[in-house]
Amino acid sequence: xxxxxxxxxxxxxxxxxxxxxxxxxxxxxxxxxxxxxxxxxxxxxxxxxxxxxxxxxxxxxxxxxxxxxxxxxxxxxxxxxxxxxxxxxxxxxxxxxxxxxxxxxxxxxxxxxxxxxxxxxxxxxxxxxxxxxxxxxxxxxxxxxxxxxxxxxxxxxxxxxxxxxxxxxxxxxxxxxxxxxxxxxxxxxxxxxxxxxxxxxxxxxxxxxxxxxxxxxxxxxxxxxxxxxxxxxxxxxxxxxxxxxxxxxxxxxxxxxxxxxxxxxxxxxxxxxxxxxxxxxxxxxxxxxxxxxxxxxxxxxxxxxxxxxxxxxxxxxxxxxxxxxxxxxxxxxxxxxxxxxxxxxxxxxxxxxxxxxxxxxxxxxxxxxxxxxxxxxxxxxxxx
Length: 384
Known about the structure:
Strand content: 15-25%
Helix content: 40-55%
CATH topology of the largest domain: Aminopeptidase
């Protein structure tokens, strides 16, 4: 029996003595019998409650032990776990997940953790109960970039229980004061992503394609809408462009979190060479409220404004008019009854980009504006 129960019984005994001395004794033996009968009932109820609690603890432990045994005895779960661990240990250089795991394997692994969520949600177990046994196995799954980009994010609304569990679990680990680290933490879903439930916004499965473009070298470039499996290529292209720039202050790179948000909610179009490599892309933030909509900088109604957040071209493919092609394509795709204005920012010293925007009908609205952590930008406007 716990110390709390002993303390509670002690307090009850003191109360009984007080009742006996100050209340029951003056009224005779019958009242004393009634008081002690009531006390006996209370103590019995406490013992029953304690037994029920002990039974629940035993049931929880048995359930978790059985789940752990099931995990180790299940060939599919152990196969996926081995592939995930190998991917984690090799810093995602290993291609085993891509070549050796299929959709059914990943679904089985995911279902196991959805069952854990049911235990938590129904208060059969607590995060502290499952953390030591299953935490590592959970986070090397949900924080694996390949799993995110090819399984979780494309149909994220079907993973709501996983995200609910993730929100509880990552909060628990962050409050553990260094006792529990988070595997693959740099690929964690942001607090904003979880709080605003971006995962309920699924992207349409059929990606929109646009007319091909033939460039000077004779290569045929394909244009299509971008999806979550393009996330790593987008980040790689952004890094190549950023590192190639003589003045890196002209570019404010997008974070992985911003790109995930935009792949859920915004317009992204990419250009692919004959080897299916991403060589250029553009991103237009939809007419939605938030810091990435430039409407407040231009004192405009955000309902009517979309924001051209990024246009990026691989250094080897510059000079082929990609900036104008991509801007025209994404702007025409975004215009609707609500969107009346397209806003963009350009470094004031970037004469080439300024000229390209002006040729496309943009005008300088504010010549110098402090944005992106103190970088100087010109605010441009194109009206429908």
